[in-house]
Each structure stands twice: as C-alpha cells, then as structure tokens.
UniProtKB/TrEMBL annotation:
Name the record gives this protein: YbbR-like protein
UniProt cross-references to InterPro entries, sorted A to Z: c-di-AMP_regulator, YbbR
Length: 336
C-alpha cells in the first residue's frame, strides 16, 4: 500500500517537472542566457575608469636613522581600461606593495622626496599594456628623518572632561607621563609639551582608564605614540575656613585693624582633596594654609568710606568657587 502511494507521488512530481521544463521553456532559457552573455561581453568591452590603491613601504633605512615624518602608507591612483581589465584589477592580491629605497630618495641631511613619476613607473609595471594611469591622487610623498636627536617631553591632556553631577576631575595621570620626541634641533626647541588627541569625555563617576593617541607634529615623531590615561573624579563638598584679614600697601608709619580680624571663607573642594588639607591636630578644624584675604590701603585712602572691601587673592590647589562670607568690614587706621 505504501509502495503504491509513493509511486503515485513520484509520478505526480515527474509530470509537474515535465510541464515546467518543456521544450518551449528550455528554448526561452537558452536565449535568455545567450543574451545575458552578449550583454556582459559588450559591457566589459566598454572603457571605464576606477580608483585603486597600492601599499607604499620604505626599505633600506639605516639603524642610526629615525624617520620622523613618514610617507603615506598607500598610493591612490586612477586607471582607464576595458571593463574586463578593470574587473581583474579589482580582485584581491592583484597589486603588490611598492618599495621605496631610503638611500635613493634621501638628501642625506634631514629630508627626502619621492617623485610621483617614479611611483607611476612602478605601478605601470603591474598593469596591462592597454591600461593607462589617468591620475595619482595628491599624497604625502616626502619624509623627514634625523640621526637619533631627541628629548623627553611631558604629556598633557587636550580636550574637555566632565564627570557626573556633583563630581569634578581631581587628577589626570599618564603612563608614561613623558615621551621621547625625535626631530631636528630647530623643531625640538619649539616642542615643550606633547598633547593627546582632543578628548571629549563626560558623565563618569569612577576612575576611568583608556588608551589615547598623541597629537602628531610636523617633522617630529613621538615614541611611544600612544599612552594610557587615568581620570580620577572626586565628590564635591561645600566647606569653609576662618582666614585672617591682611592689609596690603600700608605705609610704614601706619597700622590698619579690621573688625572682625578674620573672615569666614566658603569654597567647594573634592572629598579626596579635603582629606589632604592641613588641619588642627587637636580640634581637627581646617587651617587657613594657602588662603589669603586682604584689604587694600590705597583703595581705602581713595574712597574715604567707613567700610573697606575684602578680597580673596589666593587659595590652595584643587579648591574652587572661593568667596568670603562678607564682602566689607569695618576698619581703623592708627599711627605707629
């Protein structure tokens, strides 16, 4: 019973295939493939232009020479030829790298230049005789070098770093914190700091570590070209300290007394920085080390006012938004 059912199924499927692949369909399919072939041949026989690229490498660099400004790593050029050759050039591994001999193009002092004509000549060796290079894209085919002259230069952050709400950037560390810069003497003398590529980092509350590229110099090379950077955010707190008021620009024969003699100074500081600020050993109160509040005798003498303005002219590192609790105080000037 099952064998009979299978035979009927096979017979039905065979009839279906015969109806599809009948003589008329096969003729249609043949002419479709034939016309597609003619179209492809005509298309590939047309002339086209397309851009390609070849790797560019320098060889023969002596051990005592440091290349401070490299050639471009690729040469981009446009080729005109029949479509089938353009399609062939588009295959992987069609072009081999171009090798430039350092000694052939170096001036022996500090610079070298590779003529575009020399590059084009090497590219032509890898092209069919029917192919024509219509253009070589403008690239950097010059290089600079020195014979090991260098100096150590510190690394600094370039960009904006904004931690999360109620945090501030307490510290930035680099590993290494300095790099060796290789360049000619005139270039080295002008380089005092190496900056990172511009950074835009925001909304973080934990220590953040990342690897960053260093900005490139013209005719100079940094080793290493990348560094690790650690960003340390800290929680902001509102604090205050009592600071003595100091008179400045006073004549030698006069003394100024202010009432009060001290003023409360409010400021914002990170919690970690606050721990390291000097405090009274017994009371644990914050000492006014690094803060300076002054009144200016010359300003008072000109104004003849009953009260004198006070100014905060210095504060410790890491402290921000510093302001006195009051802006004016009473005073008394006495003769010595």
């Amino acid at each position: 019973m099952k064998t009979s059912k299978s035979l009927r199924t096979f017979s039905t499927f065979r009839s279906f295939l015969l109806r599809i692949f009948n003589k008329e369909f096969l003729i249609f399919l043949f002419f479709l493939v034939l016309s597609g072939g003619f179209w492809l041949i005509m298309t590939l026989n047309e002339t086209y232009e397309r851009e390609f690229s070849i790797s560019l490498r320098m060889t023969g660099v002596p051990r005592n020479v440091v290349i401070t400004s490299d050639l471009d790593s690729v040469v981009r050029f446009t080729v005109r030829d029949k479509g089938y050759m353009i399609a062939f050039y588009g295959l992987d591994d069609t072009f081999h790298p171009l090798y430039i001999d350092y000694k052939a193009y170096s001036d022996g002092r500090s610079r070298g230049e590779v003529p575009v004509a020399d590059l084009q000549r090497q590219i032509n060796l890898q092209l069919s005789k029917s192919s024509k290079i219509t253009s070589v894209k403008n690239g950097k085919f010059t290089f600079s070098f020195n014979f090991g002259r260098h100096k150590k230069v510190p690394v600094r952050l370039l960009g904006t770093v904004t931690p999360g709400d109620n945090y501030y950037l307490a510290r930035v560390d680099f590993y290494p914190d300095s790099v060796q810069v290789y360049a000619a003497r005139s270039v080295l003398d002008s380089i005092q700091t190496v900056y990172t590529e511009r950074q835009h980092i925001s909304n973080f509350t934990d220590v953040k570590e990342l690897t960053v590229d260093l900005r490139k110099f013209t005719d100079a090379k940094c080793i290493p070209s990348k560094v690790r950077m650690k960003l340390y955010p800290d929680v902001l707190t509102e604090e205050s300290v009592e600071v003595p008021i100091e008179a400045i620009n006073m004549p030698e024969n006069k003394v100024m007394r202010t009432f009060p003699s001290k003023v409360k100074v409010n400021f914002v500081v990170g919690a970690y920085r606050m721990q390291s600020m000097p405090k009274n050993a017994e009371t644990k109160e914050l000492l006014p080390v690094g803060f300076r509040v002054v009144v200016n005798y010359e300003e008072i003498e000109k104004s003849n006012s009953d009260k004198c303005p006070i100014y905060v002219i210095s504060s410790p590192n890491g402290v921000r938004n510093v302001r006195p609790a009051i802006n004016r105080v009473d005073y008394l000037i006495e003769q010595r």
